[in-house]
Amino acid sequence: xxxxxxxxxxxxxxxxxxxxxxxxxxxxxxxxxxxxxxxxxxxxxxxxxxxxxxxxxxxxxxxxxxxxxxxxxxxxxxxxxxxxxxxxxxxxxxxxxxxxxxxxxxxxxx
Length: 110
What we know:
This protein is mainly β and 110 residues long. The chain is 11% helix and 45% strand.
């Protein structure tokens, strides 16, 4: 278990065989309230989001920015998912706004 944000944020971090790093942010009871990922490929977002995947997929609208940046953001009720791709580097994060522990904000999810 790792800590960040002055000890307010606990997370478990794993790295798969493809070099994709996934963090699961957990509250004091061990429930996951947020995830983040980064690496050279896209992780299995369906597996990461579980029951929330359909809400993400139905709300996803990709936008294209400058310099090869592709990004999407879905905010559906308390579910927020952000995904970015830039020069073969994939990153993203997802959280349940209503489940963020006291003192934790979305900026603490890296």
